[in-house]
Amino acid sequence: MNSYDAIVIGAGHNGLVTANYLARAGKRVLVLERRAIPGGQAVTESFGEGWNVDSLHAGGMLRPDIVRELGLSIPAPAPQTFTAHTETGALSIGPALTDAASIAAIAAFSAADAARWPEFVAFMNRCAEMLEAAYAAPMPRELPHVDLRREGLPLAKLALRLRRLGKRDMFRFIRALPMTSLELFEEWFESPALRAALASVAIHGHTLGPMSAGTGFTLMHNWLNRGGLAAPQYAAGTGTIVRALTESLLAARGEIRTGSAVQRVLIERSRAVGVELAGGEQIRAPVVFSAADPRHTLLALAGERELAPEFCWHARNIKMRGAVAKIHLRTDGSHGIGPGTHAIAPALKRLERAYDASKYHEISESPYLEVTTRGETVAVHFQYAPYRLKNGDWASAGKRLEEIALATLAPVFPALAASVRASRVLTPLDLEREYGLTEGDMNHGQLAMDQFFFMRPLPNWSDHRTPIGALVLCGSGVHAGGGISGAAGRNAAKQYLAGRFA
Ligand SMILES: Cc1cc2nc3c(=O)[nH]c(=O)nc-3n(C[C@H](O)[C@H](O)[C@H](O)COP(=O)(O)OP(=O)(O)OC[C@H]3O[C@@H](n4cnc5c(N)ncnc54)[C@H](O)[C@@H]3O)c2cc1C
Q1: Which of 53, 73, 295, 427 has the most other CB atoms within 10 Å of its CB?
Q2: Strands 82-86, 341-344: pairing kind
Q3: Cα–Cα distance between 199 and 26 in angstroms, integer?
Q4: pLDDT in tens, 355-389
């Protein structure tokens, strides 16, 4: 039987970040990935016949401290213009956000909004910095008991940082977290176009509508991960990040085995001692990190027999609820879509109605779409396509998604439909079966107010540990997760290396 110092389940970017920190600390580390290629949701892959796409995530950035600490060589991604196509016209805001062109674009809808925009951007940037600091801080394990040195000190630093925002922004930040986007934007802006543009960013990736509580927080979260309104993109695709992490891991003598689905975590006396692969092969290590989602890790890989019944009940209730699909269109190049990120966001209330459909397990007939292009390929993020359908199933409903998307895009990009030569639809069921995401939830658990910070994935279990000794969560489903930042993977590795899970 093979043995290592550490095993990491899942070669998404978080698993690779964890493995890099461990390998650089001299650990013999093995990453096991069920797919044939590493990358998870950050993958750039071929759909055949030379058609290479960012199949899921269209852009993103690792935290700068990770790039620095691991000495990664990643070419700078290109910042994108964000255009919201609304009922009252198209509103384009440049990557610089507050340059003269962006202010003028907003002024065409409302002079008052244009005047308030720089203050809003400055406020959002401060919120994102605050969130970034919170995502780097370990969350206390068992509130109200706080280990003063390990948990109390980072929390005190965070509180000080919050205080440094100044009285006005401190209250604005705390108040905005639970607010609905509707209420937040009503306080700041009058133009329906700007409200709709911002609301689309707040709901992107979340099974929430702009009238849902907590979309103030999801706006800040996406603003942080995107560095503003639109995620920057890499010339060679999101796989640029995966390549850098993979090369760096191999250089540090780490190993990656693809096509290696873990079917069970080996547990002896309530402690993880290795894993068993789908073919029955067993590999041992004194610690097992899992970058797969918490529900899959706890219930399927560790197994209910190893966990207390009440804990199983809580783990089963982690809200997954994916409602995102992805449609890739290979065109002849004459799609007529300009550069940058395009949101189809007619009005805030229309986005809410798009969300309404998912509450009733129906596909939105007037969906929120986000469109990006890379050469001839047009990628469409489709929301809302709920994992559970009231009528029909995802085996047959995929084509319907493409029809709705093309019909929705036709008035905005009239040349698109005729330019399409091939297509590939990834439904929530594909996200589960192909990319290993329970219920197609790309964040490994919704970023809802009852599943964030010290409650992610579950209250009392937000410090990466699980009830199984030496089984550590390091993917998006734990605190700091959601998005391509690597924060969850870094935190898990750093805390383990600091001896906090002994
Ligand atoms: C269309 C789309 C748009 C998105 N947009 C945004 C956004 O704007 N903002 C934002 O914050 N986030 C966004 N996200 C979410 C973001 O991409 C994810 O949160 C992030 O990529 C997850 O990274 P990860 O490394 O934690 O997990 P993943 O990338 O999901 O990697 C987990 C890996 O574990 C593997 N695995 C699972 N089970 C096993 C097993 N039993 N054995 C071996 N391997 C296993 C999987 O195959 C996978 O490779 C988006 C996602 C999608 C799909």
Answers
A1: 427
A2: parallel
A3: 45
A4: 999 999 999 999 999 999 999 999 999 999 999 99
Domain coordinates of the chain in residue numbers? 2-76+236-318+447-497, 97-226, 324-438
pLDDT one-digit tens code per residue, 253-290:
999 999 999 999 999 999 999 999 999 999 999 999 99
| Ligand 1 center from residue 59 Cα (angstroms) | 13
**Spatial distance between the Cα atoms of 103 and 115, rounded to a whole number of angstroms:** 8
Mean pLDDT of all residues belonging to the chain: 96
Hey, whose CA ends up nearest to atom 4 of ligand 1? Answer: 57
Domain 2-76+236-318+447-497, CATH: 3.50.50.60
Residue 1 has pLDDT above 80, yes or no: no
Residue whose CA is at the smallest distance from ligand 1 atom 32: 12
262 close to ligand 1 (CB < 6 Angstrom): yes
Instruction: Tell me: cis bond preceding 144? Omega within 30 of 0 counts.
Output: yes
Q: How far is CA 346 from CA 148, 267, 374, in A?
A: 49, 52, 24
pTM greater than the 0.90 cutoff: yes
| Ligand 1 nearest-atom number relative to CA 296 | 38
CA of 70 to the centre of ligand 1 (A): 21
- 261 C-beta closer than 6 A to ligand 1: yes
